[in-house]
Amino acid sequence: MVATTAEGTAASPSRPSQPAQPAQPAQPSQASEPSEKAEKAETPRAPAQGRTRRTRRRRRIKIALAGTVLTLAAAAGGGYLWLDATSDVHDVGQADCAAVTPAVVATPAGRAGAEDHAAVCGRLRELTGAWARGDATAFGAQFTQDATCTTYVGTHYRGRRDIAEAHRALFDGFLKDTRLADSFLDIRFYGPDTAVVTTRGDTYTGSPKKPADLSKTQTYTLVRQSGHDWRIAAFHNTQRQRVMERISFLLSPDTKPEAEK
Predict the structure, then answer these.
(1) Who has greater pLDDT, 207 or 123?
(2) In what order do the strands lie in the sheet with 229-239?
(3) 213-247: buried (b, 16+ CB within 10 Å) or exposed (e) per residue?
(4) Disulfide-capable partner of 228 in 20, 79, 119, 154 (CB 3.0 to 4.6 Å)?
């Protein structure tokens, strides 16, 4: 018998429900396979590319630094050459000691005369001659027994014997066959028995150096021994630093000596 609904309509007989089909797994798209392979292939190269960029960056920095250093070095070298080329002195003195007019200061003991001027110049001429001959004994004899001698490197000798023996070693060593060049800046007498002589000087071989090229400033203090016998009681030698002197005059012009203005 067919069952009816409340409205009187016949209801169709119920059918058993169909079991649900299991979901099929999604198949990978063939189109995505090449891109995934490409990504996998590119992944190992990324660190290498980073290293390459860093290497190039470091190389550019090194090149820039090297260029800066070379530029600064060239500027410094050019500046040094300019300073050296413009550091000549104006007060070069006179090559002949006798041509210098001495300043004579009288004291209660008296004053020096023309013959004393000649004797002082003669003593310094003997000193130069002994050096040219490489005669250390004669060189030392131009000094007093208790004389002092200070070299431009700061070595300080005491006494005639000390001075002579040191110069004996020098004349047999790196000063062998050299000569002395002098240019006299001034001569001052204080009373009858003391003289101070300031020179520009240097050693040389071959042709004598020009006064402007002499690299040392020297001070001799001479005393009368007896009569007109004058000897060197003290000698002080100073190396002139051309470039440093020029820099000091540029930075502080008031330090320039009157003779150089």
Answers:
(1) 123
(2) 103-105, 179-190, 194-204, 216-226, 229-239, 143-150, 156-158
(3) ebebbbebbbebeeeeebbbbbbbbeeeebeebbe
(4) 119
DSSP tag of 100: S
Write the Ramachandran bin of 116: left for phi over 0, alpha for psi from -120 to 50, otherwise beta.
alpha
DSSP lists the bridge partners of residue 251 as none
Q: What is the pLDDT of residue 101?
A: 97
| pTM exceeds 0.90 for this model | no
Taking Cα atoms as reference points, which of 147, 143, 154, 139 lies closest to residue 238? 154
Residue 34 confidence (pLDDT) above 90: no
CA dist., res. 75 & res. 212, Å (int): 27
Taking Cα atoms as reference points, which of 214, 182, 215, 202 lies closest to residue 94?
182
Segment 181-213, tens digit of pLDDT: 999 999 999 999 999 999 999 999 999 888 888
